[in-house]
Task: inverse folding
């Protein structure tokens, strides 16, 4: 179905090729998972398959390529569209009409299909994707997951032989991501559609894949059947900056300890089969709880309610106390009020009712900019925080804001740049940095003024495991200096590994507030994979609040 | 202030159910008549006739945001006209000052009234366009443009840009929030500082939009946009007899107004003294036609809704 031989591609103006000597051959009906750190060439590889590279993105291409019986180099993306469907990251940037029906028609109309054929395929596609109830809905009212399903539907209507997806769930919440993945699995299983998907979060997708392909710096590092890759190449995968799913991480840890746990498990059920003898041996609790009973106040909310101008009640009489030096993860479904809650703390939003105290003081009347010396708030997209002409100025701005004099500004910003590994970029224009560098810069700029409270809203969405760990180390270091850190996140596994106190919100209320072991265990959606694995073993005396692979191993 | 979002609002009111061509033609007729006729009665009528349409479409909240903006613009028009105009017999206030270029700074009743009616003209035009933007889905606008023989690519790009208005506004809101968190004071300091800060938001917004544009172009190309084959269309604009009749009525109304304006039926003098309020019989007849056609729009929409339900 797909055959690449010695494919090398270099973008115009780039110093190095984005792809180097790639050999890849995919049979019809295969489900291929492509992964790799950012900048490894995954997206470029996807785009060679339908001719966007080199037709849309110019550059030098060498080697030979055949996809679905055509040569994308000569056919071009317009003609390839009938054979290769492509779904992109951000649903917002690939929908071009205003309602579902028009969107599904767009590609078919471009290919000049007859009206009868379009009508037939429309019904077919809506049913296959399970979105017929959405057919007349305007796109801007759909959730991210629904939008992405519409994007897939609009591609399926073209009856492609290959479906290529470039990180289709990086903008979605876990529920939306699960929905998209299970549909892909069905398309592959029942329709025999060849699927090529780029992902760096493996835990939700690995069970559906046949092949595992890892790219790094434009080279194909691993290309193996997925079981074999997980069994024999786990160390190599991690060395390339890709995190293993928790179950496989446990498998790997056990193997390193000399315990042979059998085949690598991809689902929780497979995990129970594989680890059964091991799990029955766990008896002692795997962690020790550390409590500081009476920390000085950092954040206090008294009966805070918030109503948006549209009439949407986003917070309902919320009471909350967060002490200095605490790390708190705020979790919950989309639109449960998480972001609205943290926006109250620096007056991006002003409570409709109730009081907010920061560091013991009532903040009524303060402006967000004034609050920035006490609270650093960084949103998901680091780029939006940046506005200076150079990396150094970006950090200097925060320091000047805090009232430091010129020499202090200079020395402190040097120190910050050093600490965040940005020194060599000091004079660069912030927008030219890579995604990971921008993230570090936004964080450095927020932390430069040493705010007592640091809030990160979805800091890990769309970033790979290596950067995640780096980020968490920086944050942990900050907390040790008795600063308060608040994380707003959907990332259950992240909180299981790095969190301590967890607040679960739903419909504008705090539902549970407690230690992560208490909040995240014995549940389904909000429990990490390892906890779901050990839950049934409670009857054997296994502590049911184990959350991570490391905890399992240390409890053996 | 709520954001100025002039993108389509979903709704299933009778007004939403009107034929897209009718929606466009209605707004254009109001604009044409308001532009060519000076008579205060007709200008007032043009604005007032849009109010029930906004209400019937259930978009009064979003609509009012624009009306409020238009009112502010109107106040400015009235002020400038009152101060700059030297015509008018009825002096209300005399400053005694003599301004260079403008002459003596006096306030006359005529200048005030003239300004007020120019403001109402503005109000009518903004109101009609705002309502049209709210009730005409971009996909329908695309079909109307194709009907008018606009090339597909041009029409597609026009409607695509309207689709991204809300996305852009959301981006702008997020960027403003993010930069405030960094310590940028948006609403304090002198004008130059404020402009400077706003420009940093615009720059970020521009960079964001450029990225979006490239991704959209990619996604469109991957779905065969611009492929050399002749494009087909799944959705077609259909015309019922009722739609045709509404368009004929609107055309008669516009033709009457043009005829009336050309033959001086609506001549109205604001300066030096208000005169010409009483029209010739032909003027009254045309005004009556305008009144009947415009007030008939909503009942016609209801009728169409019933007919459509019967058909379904």
Result:
């Amino acid at each position: 179905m797909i055959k690449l031989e010695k494919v090398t591609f270099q973008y115009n103006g780039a110093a190095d090729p984005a792809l180097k000597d790639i050999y890849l051959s995919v049979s019809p009906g295969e489900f291929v998972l492509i992964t790799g750190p950012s900048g490894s060439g995954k997206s470029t590889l996807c785009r060679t398959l339908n001719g966007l590279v080199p037709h849309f993105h110019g550059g030098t291409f060498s080697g030979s390529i055949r996809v679905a019986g055509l040569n994308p180099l000569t056919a071009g993306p317009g003609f390839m569209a009938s054979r290769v469907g492509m779904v992109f990251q951000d649903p917002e940037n690939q929908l071009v009409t205003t309602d579902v029906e028009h969107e599904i028609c767009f590609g078919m109309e471009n290919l000049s299909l007859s009206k009868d054929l379009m009508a037939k395929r429309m019904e077919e596609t809506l049913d296959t994707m399970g979105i017929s109830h959405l057919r007349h809905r305007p796109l801007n009212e759909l959730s991210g997951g629904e939008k992405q399903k519409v994007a897939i539907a609009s591609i399926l209507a073209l009856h492609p032989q290959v479906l290529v997806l470039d990180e289709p769930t990086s903008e979605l919440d876990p529920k939306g991501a699960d929905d998209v993945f299970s549909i892909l699995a069905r398309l592959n299983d029942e329709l025999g559609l060849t699927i090529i998907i780029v992902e760096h979060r493996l835990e939700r997708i690995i069970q559906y894949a046949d092949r595992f392909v890892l790219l790094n710096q434009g080279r194909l590092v691993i290309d193996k059947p997925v079981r074999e890759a997980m069994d024999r190449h786990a160390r190599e995968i991690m060395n390339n900056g890709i995190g293993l799913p928790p179950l496989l991480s446990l498998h790997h840890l056990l193997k390193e300890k000399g315990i042979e746990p059998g085949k690598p498990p991809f689902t929780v059920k497979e995990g129970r089969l594989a680890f059964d003898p091991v799990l029955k041996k766990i008896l002692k609790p795997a962690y020790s709880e550390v409590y500081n009973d009476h920390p000085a106040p950092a954040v206090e909310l008294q009966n805070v309610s918030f109503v948006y101008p549209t009439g949407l009640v986003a917070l309902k009489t919320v009471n909350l106390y967060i002490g200095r030096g605490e790390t708190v993860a705020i979790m919950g479904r989309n639109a449960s009020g998480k972001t609205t809650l943290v926006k109250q703390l620096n007056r991006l939003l002003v409570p409709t009712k109730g009081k907010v105290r920061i560091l013991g003081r009532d903040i009524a009347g303060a402006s967000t900019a004034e609050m920035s010396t006490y609270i650093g708030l960084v949103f998901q997209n680091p780029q939006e925080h940046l506005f200076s002409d150079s990396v150094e100025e970006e950090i200097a701005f925060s320091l000047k804001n805090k009232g430091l004099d010129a020499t202090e500004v200079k020395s402190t910003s040097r120190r910050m740049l050093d600490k965040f590994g940005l020194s060599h970029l000091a004079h660069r224009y912030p927008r030219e940095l890579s995604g990971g560098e921008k993230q570090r810069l936004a964080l450095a700029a927020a932390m430069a003024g040493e705010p007592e409270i640091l809030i990160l809203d979805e800091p890990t969405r769309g970033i790979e495991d290596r950067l995640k760990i780096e980020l968490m180390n920086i944050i942990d270091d900050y907390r040790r200096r008795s600063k308060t850190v608040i994380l707003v996140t959907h990332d259950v596994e992240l909180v299981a590994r790095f969190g301590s106190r967890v607040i679960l919100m739903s419909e504008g209320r705090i539902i549970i507030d407690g230690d992560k072991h208490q909040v995240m265990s014995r549940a389904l959606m909000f429990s990490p994979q390892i906890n779901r694995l050990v839950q049934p073993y409670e009857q054997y005396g296994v502590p049911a609040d184990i959350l991570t692979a490391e905890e399992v191993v240390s409890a053996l | 202030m709520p954001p100025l979002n002039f993108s389509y609002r979903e709704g299933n009111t009778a007004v939403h159910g009107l034929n897209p061509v009718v929606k466009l033609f209605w707004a254009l007729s109001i604009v044409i008549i308001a532009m060519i006729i000076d008579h205060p009665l007709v200008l007032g009528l043009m604005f007032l006739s849009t109010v029930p349409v906004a209400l019937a479409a259930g978009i009064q909240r979003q609509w009012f945001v624009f009306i409020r903006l238009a009112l502010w613009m109107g106040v400015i028009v009235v002020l400038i006209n009152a101060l700059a105009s030297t015509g008018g017999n009825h002096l209300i206030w005399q400053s005694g000052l003599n301004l260079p270029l403008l002459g003596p700074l006096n306030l006359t009743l005529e200048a005030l009234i003239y300004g007020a009616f120019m403001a109402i003209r503005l109000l009518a035009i903004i109101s009609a366009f705002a309502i049209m933007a709210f009730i005409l889905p971009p996909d329908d606008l695309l079909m109307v443009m194709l009907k008018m023989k606009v090339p597909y690519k041009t029409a597609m790009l026009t409607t695509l840009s309207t689709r991204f208005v809300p996305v852009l506004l959301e981006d702008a809101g997020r960027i403003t929030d993010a930069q405030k968190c960094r310590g940028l004071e948006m609403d304090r300091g002198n004008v130059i500082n404020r402009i400077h800060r706003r420009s940093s938001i615009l720059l970020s917004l521009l960079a964001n939009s450029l990225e979006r544009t490239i991704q959209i172009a990619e996604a469109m190309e991957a779905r065969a946009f611009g492929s050399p084959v002749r494009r087909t269309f799944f959705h077609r604009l259909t015309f019922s007899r009722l739609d045709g009749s509404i368009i004929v009525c609107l055309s008669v109304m516009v033709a009457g107004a043009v005829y009336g304006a050309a033959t001086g039926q609506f001549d109205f003098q604001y300066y030096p003294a208000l005169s010409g309020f009483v029209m010739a019989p032909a003027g009254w007849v045309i005004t009556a036609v305008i009144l009947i056609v415009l007030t008939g729009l909503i009942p016609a929409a209801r009728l169409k809704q019933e007919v459509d339900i019967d058909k379904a």
Observations:
- Strands of chain B lie at 91-99, 103-108.
- Residues 20-311 of chain B form one domain.
- The mean pLDDT of chain B is 88.
- The first helix of chain B runs from residue 20 to 36.
